[in-house]
Amino acid sequence: MKKFLINLLIFAAINLFLAVAYLVITQNLYSYHNWETKSVLLAVPKNKNYDLVILGASNGRNLSDAKNHLLVEKILGKKIFNLSKAAAGPIPEKAYLRYFYENGNSAKKIVYFLNPYAFYSDAWNEKLAFLNAEPLYLKFFEIAVKNGSSKEVLLSYVRSKFTLSWLAGIKPLPENSGPDDELTKIDSEQVQNQLKFLYPNGLDKAAFSRYTDTLKKIVELAHKNNSELIFAFPPTLVNEQPGKEEVKNFVLALGKENAGVRFFDWSQTIGDIRLYMDLDHLNAAGVGVFAKLIAESL
């Protein structure tokens, strides 16, 4: 029995060593620029200073897709880092921002692109599987736990690192992977289907209260690290977004309570459908137009 336990411990130790070695090989040997990977953590540097940091969901992330990132930096004349993540609400974005600061980085300004749907469901917050495309860093795992990510999301985070899809997903993006598609028409049925998908719980008031409280904590975190915070609605072809006015009024109130907090409504500033690749995401030409608008506003 004693011999069996010793062998079992040796077996467990060997497997633990192999698992750690695997993670080191598949994570620590990779270092990407913001525009080369969909992962946020693989691009987060240490002790760097930025003029502008971007928070938000996919329409914020879109500004750094491949060639877009360098184009936006050139137009704005600013050094940019993008912490946006597809479908991410305030909960995931707060975790990314904390990790960014804890690695010794700083930002003069933060532009947080707000999506009203992100304030009305845990599907875009505690239950969002945003970690599967990220390396398994113990520091970030601890942040995610304290930040409120669900047990299912955290378990999936660990499991996902031991899959072929993880190995395939940490390759650099092709240089020509920027979105060039042009939207040719707006389908009202498509708009309604999208809204149903984005608001699975309707306008949940309890969720709104929870995630606007998270937004307050993001403001506190930014100010603690001497960053000016700018909230903005990104351009979209969807005119009626449920909960938009409630989010806008909350952010305007935040601005009155906190110095250094500003708000811009850019949601209806770009109406040419040829500058979009779908209802909410600008193509490469649209990003160029939008970057000029941001430069003028800031």
Order of helices and strands: HEHHEHEHHHHHEHEH
Over the alpha carbons, how many angstroms does the gyration radius reach?
A: 20 Å
**Helix percent band:** 40-55%
Shape: globular
What CATH first level of the domain at 46-126 and 180-297 would be assigned?
Alpha Beta
The largest beta-sheet arranges its strands as: 2-1-3-4-5
Mean pLDDT across residues: 87
Q: Main beta sheet: strand number and arrangement?
A: 5 strands, parallel
The named CATH superfamily of the domain at 46-126 and 180-297: SGNH hydrolase
Helix and strand content put the structural class at alpha/beta
CATH topology value of the domain at 46-126 and 180-297: Rossmann fold
Provide a count of the helices.
Answer: 11
Low-confidence spans: 7-22
Number of strands: 5
Written overview of the protein:
There is one protein chain. With 298 residues, this protein is an alpha/beta fold. It has a domain of 199 residues: SGNH hydrolase (Rossmann fold). Helix content is 47%, strand content 10%. The chain has 11 helices and 5 strands, in the order αβααβαβαααααβαβα. A 5-stranded parallel sheet has the order 2-1-3-4-5. Strand 4, helix 10 and strand 5 form a beta-alpha-beta unit. Helix 4 runs parallel beside helix 9. The longest helix has 27 residues. The N and C termini lie far apart (71 Å).
